[in-house]
TrEMBL record:
SUPFAM superfamilies per record: HAD-like, UDP-Glycosyltransferase/glycogen phosphorylase
Family: Belongs to the GmhB family.
Pfam families: Glyco_transf_9, Hydrolase_like
Alphabetic keyword roster: Carbohydrate metabolism, Cytoplasm, Hydrolase, Metal-binding
Source organism (scientific name): Micromonospora solifontis
GO molecular-function terms, A-Z: hydrolase activity
PANTHER family: D-GLYCERO-BETA-D-MANNO-HEPTOSE-1,7-BISPHOSPHATE 7-PHOSPHATASE
Location in or out of the cell: Cytoplasm
Domain of life: Bacteria
Protein name (record): D,D-heptose 1,7-bisphosphate phosphatase
Length: 540
């Protein structure tokens, strides 16, 4: 827990928050001020360049500010509590007031729940500011800061210094050169999801598109809900791999399932009759406009051409390529933005925004209820070993070792997988879990995950499904794509795996490195520790 060692806590009632964040949490030493080891002297407080102006920019945007700092010097006797108060008073004198100070006074040997990388300080600061961790963003200079933010469900931005290790930079969800750079990115993200020109009335029928896998459809959910909030009717065009996920999304009134050969990972040859039939089907929707959601490496322009031929008068999409007359709204997004925010920013560019009472996280339809046969009695942890992309799957033997380690730690373990993964789940579950492989559809898997204490999974659709139902995720994340863009969104997470492996940012579908080292080397003991951090056992 945090200790209110501060010159004064300011009002703890948060004003109505912006679309993405209510508050920014800041590490102290190396982020706000020069790092002077065990400093108890106010005269040694020296702000880093540009910090005061950056903080004032956050204040002007209506964001609340808290300092979240480990101060083991108290436990070690290097300074006293009054001296720490004096240092913090000097920080506020130079940098302006903070709404809360969250301080861990312990040493590593105390095994407290507040010392970063534990998430306790982030939870405490969010409570003090009248918000939740998922509406907070943490800025710090070392990996402990990022780990604490992720484990609480907050967003993280790393500002490296000379003491930041290269592996901490590789693991960070986002990196800025300094605090002013981080603040620029925070404010840019906030602006990006707000329409420049809000709509004055509701649109008629809007066609939205995400023709991709289940996970891709799930992370587009916030953008689709934003469109639905401003439309009379929403029709979703998706592919066969995303159909089950599309059926779980709020705000969708009708689904059109169609393979798009310029999107599908295993495409059929382009067929003239099929394209003509698709164009006719799109014309039959009678859409007043269309919003084409794509991944960062996909082009919306082939479909935009068909929509023009189908008579859709207004089309919005993200496109780096020159679209000519194919798009009415051509939107651009920097690389690395989380996919749900990328979708929200396109919806905003088209004039749509989430209503004030809708969180920008992932969400499913409320009516997903019903019994799930085969679940063990009591609390359980889920291990999902499979992935539609082989490079992102943890090797089966290592997954079996993880199941054995979790079972040895006293957890009931459920192993899940799709109908084509029964052999895989049987192998992994034999190490000490209950095998539910192939026994449920995606809605059933959502119910299983909603009841779980934690999910252990690679970068695949069930990770986003867990985020949508609020279940913490131990992410065995292969770095073939950026974690900050594709990691579990706004849900407590621990990332494991070698973030600096040679496969980094290759987008490879099959591991290009012999032995799949980024995930083969995951230590099952680290998975057990991560589950304990995210889902601590109840007190005896």
């Amino acid at each position: 827990m945090s200790t209110p060692l501060a010159p004064g806590n300011h009002s703890a009632t948060a004003p109505p928050g912006p679309a993405l964040y209510d508050a920014v949490l800041l590490d102290r030493d190396g982020t706000l001020i020069e790092d002077v080891p065990y400093n108890g002297d106010p005269e040694k407080v020296r702000p880093l360049p540009g910090v005061r102006e950056a903080l004032d920019g956050l204040r002007a945007a209506g964001l609340r500010l808290a300092v979240v700092t480990n101060q083991s010097g108290l436990a070690r006797g290097h300074f006293t509590e009054p001296q720490l108060h004096a240092v913090h008073a000097r920080v506020e004198e130079l940098l302006g007031p903070f709404d809360h100070w969250a301080v861990c006074p312990h040493d590593d040997t105390d095994r407290c729940d507040c010392r970063k990388p534990a998430p306790g300080l982030v939870h405490a600061a969010a409570r003090a500011l009248g918000t939740t961790p998922r509406r907070c963003l943490m800025v710090g200079d070392i990996g402990r800061d990022m780990a604490a933010a992720l484990a609480a469900g907050a967003t993280g931005i790393l500002v490296p210094t000379a003491v930041t290790r290269p592996e901490e930079v590789a693991e960070a969800p986002a990196v800025a050169r300094d605090l002013p750079g981080a603040v620029h990115e925070i404010l840019r993200r906030m602006r990006a999801v707000q329409p420049v020109v809000p709509r004055t009335g509701r649109a008629g029928t809007v066609l939205v598109v995400r023709s991709d896998s289940a996970g891709d459809v799930l992370v587009t959910g916030p953008g689709i809900r934003a469109v639905a909030a401003g439309a009379e009717r929403v029709v979703l065009l998706c592919g066969p791999r995303g159909r089950a996920a599309a059926e779980l999304l709020p705000g969708v009134d009708e689904i059109i399932e169609w393979r798009l050969p310029w999107i599908d990972g295993d495409p059929e040859p382009v067929d003239r009759a099929d394209i003509r039939a698709l164009t006719d089907r799109l014309a039959g929707v009678g859409a007043a406009e269309a919003v084409i959601f794509t991944s960062f490496h996909q082009s919306p322009l082939p479909l935009a051409l068909l929509l023009r031929l189908a008579g859709v008068p207004r089309i919005s999409a993200i496109s780096d390529d020159y679209p000519g007359s194919l798009l009415d709204v051509r939107h651009r997004v920097p690389v690395g933005v989380p996919e749900p925010e990328r979708a929200l920013s396109l919806a905003a560019a088209a004039g749509f925004a989430l209503p004030a009472d809708d969180e920008p996280g992932l969400r499913l339809r409320h009516e997903l209820t019903g019994p799930t046969p085969g679940l063990p009695a009591g609390e359980y942890v889920v291990v999902h070993p499979g992935s539609s992309v082989p490079a992102r799957a943890c090797p089966p033997r290592r997954c079996a070792e993880i199941v054995a380690a979790l079972a040895a730690d006293g957890h009931r373990v459920v192993v899940t997988g799709g109908p084509g993964e029964r052999e895989l789940t049987a192998l992994v579950a034999a190490a000490g879990g209950t095998d539910l492989g192939g026994g449920t559809d995606l809605a059933g898997l959502a119910r299983i995950l909603a009841g779980a204490r934690c999910l252990v999974v690679g970068n695949t659709g069930p990770a986003h499904l867990a985020a949508a139902v609020g279940t913490p995720v131990v992410s065995l994340f292969a770095p073939t794509v950026p974690f900050g863009q594709w990691g579990p969104y706004r849900v407590p997470t621990v990332r494991l795996g070698d973030a600096g492996a040679p496969c980094r940012d290759t987008r490879a579908a099959v591991c290009p490195v012999a032995g799949h080292p980024c995930l083969t080397r995951v230590d099952p003991a680290d998975v057990v520790a991560a589950v304990r951090a995210l889902a601590p056992p109840p007190p005896r």
